[in-house]
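ARCHIVE CARD
Drawer: 12
Card no.: 0347
Subject: one protein chain, sequence and derived structure
Cross-reference: see card 0346
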Amino acid sequence: MNKIYIFKLGDKWVFKHYFEDEEVYRLLSQFYQRARFRFECSTIEDRDKAAEFLKYHGFDVSVVENPSECVVRMNKQNYDSMVKVLKNSIAHRDVGEERIFLMMDAVSVEKALKEGAERYASSVDFF
């Protein structure tokens, strides 16, 4: 079963997933933000609608209000690895010589750690 985390970021609820089933993607496309490569819901009602739809189609959905367990950091000089980590992130922010990433799920966190990222314990505002 695929696990999808829906994160509360600012005034939006966001998630990221590549849907192989075009019908599932088509029905969620109203929430897709191409510029950010992620799905965004502006209201709790839309978030709940998307979550119920995903559950109906066999996804395990978790709503995450405190995303700290999915935040990693990486030195910006490690460009090749950083690009791989970026692919599985929902949001990122530059802080000094580091880039801080919010990863889309626990599996993506583990992949990022293997690429040389480290867990980031401080709070980050991604908006």
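Annotation on reverse: The longest strand covers residues 3-9. The radius of gyration is 14 Å.
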